[in-house]
Every structure is written in C-alpha cells, then in structure tokens.
Write the structure tokens for this entry.
Amino acid sequence: MAVFIAGHRGLVGSALVRAYAALGTPVLTRTRQQLDLRDAAAVSRFIGEAKPRIVIIAAAKVGGILANDTLRYDFIAENLFIELALIEACRIHRVPRVLFLGSSCIYPKLAPQPMREDCLLGGPLEQTNEPYAIAKIAGVKLIESCNRQHGTDWLSAMPTNLYGPGDNFDLNGSHVLPAMMRKFHEAKLAGDAPVTLWGSGTPKREFLHVDDLASACLHLLANVHAGQVPGDLINVGCGTDVTIRELAELVQRTVGHRGPVVWDAGKPDGTPRKLMDVSRLTGLGWQPKIDLADGIAGAYRWYLDNVEQARR
C-alpha cells in the first residue's frame, strides 16, 4: 500500500512520515525541487505513474498573523494551486483514499465555542488570515463535492493549532508557540532579557501535538469513510484551551527564562477564542495522548537539538 504524503518536510508531513515508518508502511515523498505541487500537469503525471493508494495533502503555505496579513495574495493563490492540482490528479487517476488537511481558521471569527463542523460558512472570517482560510475552505468543498459527484471515498480533517518537532521558529513567519519558545530561549541566553509578546494575552487557543494529529489521521483513514459524517469533515483537536498568557507562562517555565514579559497591546490579538468541538472525532473512537506540558518540553528539546535548522 503506497502512501503519498504531500508536504513531507513540514511540521505535519514529517509527523505523518514518522507514524507510517512506525507501522512499516512504505511512503512516497517528493521535495519541492523534485515536484512543484503548484504545477498541475507535473502532479498529474506523478500520481498517474506512482499510483498511490492513499494521498495525504499536508502541503500548504502557512504562517502566523504577520505573514498571513502581509502576504495575502500569496496565501490564497499558492494554497489554491496546490489543492486543486493534487485533488484533480487524484480524481483523474482514481486514488482510493485522500485526506485533505485544513485549519481551524476556516471557521467564522465569532463562531460559537467550541466550534462545530457545521458552523462552517456561518459568519465572517478573521480578517488577518481570511485569504488562507478561504483557500482551505475551497479544499474542503473540493473533497465534499468530488465525493458527491464522483463517488470518491475522501475526507477532510481540520486540525487545531499544532506544535512539535519540525516546527517553524522563524520569527517572521511562525505560529505563536514556536515564536514564543525562540524568544524566551534567546532572551535566556542574553541574561534573561525582557521578552515582548504580541497582544493582550487574553485570547484563548487550543494546542495539539503534531504526533497526536498524525495518529488521528491514520485512525480516520483506517476507520472512517465518505458519507459517514456530514460534509466529510472532521475536527481534530484535544478539546481544551489555554489563554495566550497561560501559554507564555508555560513556555517560559519550560525554557527556564526568568526575565520580565511585556505585552504589546498595540499588536493584534486575532480571534478571541478558537476551540474545536471534537465530539465527532471522539465518537469515531480517537483520543489524544500527549499532555501540553509534556509536549512543549519535547518540542523544546527538539529545538535545542536543531537550533540552526529551526531558525530557518
């Protein structure tokens, strides 16, 4: 059974590679130099020749608030190119199973909390990442529509905020948790210098270890089929959240930084709260295993072992 993981070098893709390696399952991968996922013709040739039984779409252009808000065209265009090239190639070559990975930002900014799958398209999106969210919504609808029109057996999974080995620690493009970790680490090395963090610290976020996400993906592919859940869409999260301030305190303790923390309230907070309703997933027989404190400690160990790679 050949599995193609699109985006195998990213945070999610590398976790999926680890998960399949643990099972002894062959995995197909291609670097960006070997296969440009925005090139529909090249992608179709590859899928036709490789004939994977499973394709997991973990490839995406991703980033934090700053990157999303300043590179708006890039985030919608590049993600649409990738999604359509892969999904259309899988349709043409009749790939039995496809799992499209999206993001919790597909849900409205003021969606009822916790966010259920059926709140999709129920209100305005958060403006700072609206282009990225629209691209991901398009991917969800491509999967759902292909299932309905062509009888495919595909799924979409919407992960919450992820972290873990292989994360992006570039301060200009990373998400909140790795950005905090790098800031606290470098401030610690500078004699416990002050650390400035964006916003008020009051928004609440849910965090899932990327190895738990990989576990959930394999569970869904093995046990869940198109038509089993509305929209063929399933949230993946842990079902609990913390404030950004609480997260900062946990990361600071883990790193061992003892200096002051300054909150820059002039910077945007983003969505006030983003907590996933994961009752659909737990009803399908899956639960996360990695505690947030343990997961952050493991992520920091990985960062220390891979500082130069992580900064890039």
